[in-house]
Design a protein that fits this description.
Rossmann fold, four-stranded antiparallel beta sheet, 636 residues, eight-stranded mixed beta sheet, alpha+beta
Length: 636
């Protein structure tokens, strides 16, 4: 009866007033709800499927927790208070290894601890050394393979390390040009990737007793990327664009040094992610990205699993994130453009399916905005793909707009939940993200079209996105702002410097202001790729005029829009000098610039309280210059 009354009132309002009731924006969602740490995240099954490990906040930091399946008790096994644990893996069924850096310096150290919290050990207690895990060696409960730049800060050697004692042995010394290592299915180190700066080689050996031999050498523009070994450990599955524009998946014959079987290709995008079943020793499918992510399955069993999960969880993207060694138990993650989703546990034999946790239960997806795939033409006719998020509850006309170019620049934006995008949409802004030329995933030609085009054709692609929004009537030309991080921060500075009449304000988050200073301060372990950077961005000597013309610092006199700059003091990628120098240049000219520096952060703000400070200040800054909604009460 109540539904009938509502329907009659709606019809009556249309009859009397000539229109439907006015749509209104959702409530102003507290800023902290978008940027607080998740309830729990990063769930991972133990190899035997008996325990769950996951990240959960403790004293405002993400720490590792363990829970036996079917039990209520949860054990916290790490005690980070200064910085979140960056990631973890199961070293064996009873021990977990994790990595953590200091104040954002990205010099990750390796730690290990038993699942009951006992026998904690810092395995790599070295200053200014970065560690990463190569192989957890699933058939060896006492060791794993790591690489680290302890001997030489520029390169990474491979060590076999005891996860209980920290005792280690170098098993491969980097000659100075290896940028990546790969093991076979038995944990033997048998592939190395090398570079001379502009040419890439794949090296191979039949066993660890032999020397590496060259399989193939290509320019860095051509790829033959080993994904993993065939299950007999003889050949390789690779992603390659040799002789073609888009990467495709092949089987590569090691003995004869050639691709022998095309497994999957897509006419529009690169394909470089291959799914497998270690238990059944088969490849099961591929995953690729167009406007959204898509699967193609070779294996009926894996296809049926996906279909059954999607049937159980309609309306969401669904992925299997972890499985027990026997593959009878799996962890499932859902997500969408309006939700960080949830984790589920599925015992396939027992048909036991249950929700573990909502990642951000305090967010109501009905109050959030849809992210819609879009495309437009750049001024030279190139199709640019991207995503447009329009504020919910208002007409899509004459809106304040935030242009949000991605970092990299050799990366891409994808469809899904982004807290900053949803935050901005809730404040009343339309948000446009574009995969400008040189973004990855669209093939070699599109990628190379952006070489040495920072501040030029790449920036034109961004500008053309603004003009497209104006032509559509979506954007108010007087209320367009630009915000981005890292290379997106560069695009912000380039936007306000090279098109000063286009933007009403800008937010530069750990962005680049000068190509000369950024190339001087790259981390030592990027040194082997310096010549490649020169070819993609520009050589400070040979291309001096180009880099001067495209470095916003040298054009600070053209900037007139208010700017907000945020920077981590310990950023190893974009040194704090990048922000200091542009802020100083603008202040000398009397341009309004707000500057936030966090002493315990690096390339982006990981600590929750710093995210709160940044986005609270950003909200007020944008509200002042673009007129979006602002939360008056500061959340405690």
């Amino acid at each position: 009866m109540r539904t009938r009354v509502i329907f009659v009132l709606v019809v009556l309002s249309i009859f009397v007033f000539g229109c439907a009731p006015k749509e209104e924006m959702p409530r102003l969602i507290p800023m902290e709800d978008f940027f607080r740490n998740p309830e729990s995240a990063g769930f991972n099954l133990s190899p035997d499927g008996e325990h769950l490990a996951f990240m959960k906040p403790w004293q405002n930091r993400l720490n590792v927790h363990v829970q036996k399946i079917g039990k209520e008790e949860v054990a916290r096994i790490s005690s980070a208070t200064e910085r979140d644990i960056a990631g973890f893996i199961w070293a064996n069924n009873s021990r977990i290894a994790y990595v953590q850096d200091t104040a954002g310096d990205e010099n990750f150290r390796l730690y290990a601890v038993n699942i009951d919290g006992s026998d904690f050990k810092e395995l790599t207690p070295f200053e200014k050394v970065r560690v990463s895990i190569i192989d957890e060696l699933e058939n060896d409960d006492e060791h794993m393979l790591i690489d680290m730049n302890k001997r030489d800060a520029r390169v990474f050697d491979v060590y076999r390390i005891n996860i209980n004692t920290g005792k280690m042995q170098m098993i491969a010394q980097n000659p100075g040009n290896v940028t990546g290592w790969m093991t076979d299915h038995d944990g033997n180190l048998r592939v190395a990737i090398t570079t001379d700066g502009v040419n890439t080689s794949v090296l191979y050996r039949n066993s660890e007793k032999e020397d590496f031999q060259n399989l193939i050498t290509t320019t860095f523009k051509e790829t033959l990327t080993p994904l993993f070994f065939t299950f007999d450990n003889k050949n390789l599955y690779v992603a390659s664009n040799i002789g073609r524009d888009k990467e495709a998946i092949y089987e590569y014959d090691v003995e004869n040094k050639k691709n022998i079987k095309l497994l999957y290709e897509h006419p529009e995008v690169d394909v470089n992610y291959l799914l497998k079943s270690d238990k059944r020793k088969i490849i099961t499918g591929v995953y690729y990205y167009t406007d959204k992510g898509h699967y193609f399955f070779f294996d009926k069993n894996r296809k049926q699993l996906q279909e059954s999960l999607e049937k159980r969880l309609p309306g969401y993207e669904v992925s299997v994130t972890s499985a027990s060694k026997d593959e009878t138990k799996v962890l499932v993650r859902t997500y969408s453009d309006r939700s960080l989703g949830a984790y589920y546990y599925f015992d396939r034999d027992a048909e036991d399916f249950k929700k573990l946790v909502d990642v951000s239960p305090w967010l109501n997806e009905d109050e959030l905005a849809e992210m819609k795939p879009i495309s437009y033409k750049s001024r030279d006719g190139l199709t640019i793909y991207g995503y447009l998020t329009l504020p919910k509850g208002v007409k899509s006309k004459n809106l304040p707009v935030i242009i949000n170019p991605h970092g990299g620049p050799w990366a891409r934006d994808t469809w899904g939940f982004l807290p900053d995008v949803q935050f901005l949409a809730n404040r009343g802004y339309a948000v446009l993200q574009m995969n400008f030329r040189t973004s990855t995933g669209y093939g070699r030609k599109f990628w190379e079209a952006g070489f040495k085009q920072s501040g030029l054709a790449i920036q034109d692609d961004i500008t053309d996105g603004v003009l497209w929004l104006i032509e559509q009537g979506i954007a108010d030309p007087e209320r367009v702002g630009i915000y981005g991080g890292s290379y997106g921060g560069y695009c912000t500075l380039a936007g306000v410097a090279f098109t000063p009449d286009l933007y009403a304000c800008g937010v530069d988050y750990v962005g680049i202001s000068s190509w000369f200073t950024i190339l001087e301060s790259i981390p030592p372990y990027w040194e082997p790729m310096r010549d490649m950077f020169y070819e993609m961005v520009g050589d400070p000597e040979k291309d001096k005029e180009l880099l001067e013309a495209t470095s916003p610092l040298f054009h600070a006199d053209k900037i007139k829009a208010p700017l907000f700059v945020a920077q981590g003091a310990n950023d190893p990628r974009v040194n704090i000098k990048e922000s200091d120098q542009i802020v100083d240049a603008l202040k000398e000219r009397g341009i309004e610039v707000e500057y936030m520096v966090k002493d315990n952060e690096g390339h982006g703000f990981r600590n929750e309280e710093n995210r709160f400070d940044f986005y609270r200040a950003m909200e007020k800054f944008l509200g002042k210059h673009l007129g979006g909604r602002v939360e008056e009460k500061i959340q405690k």
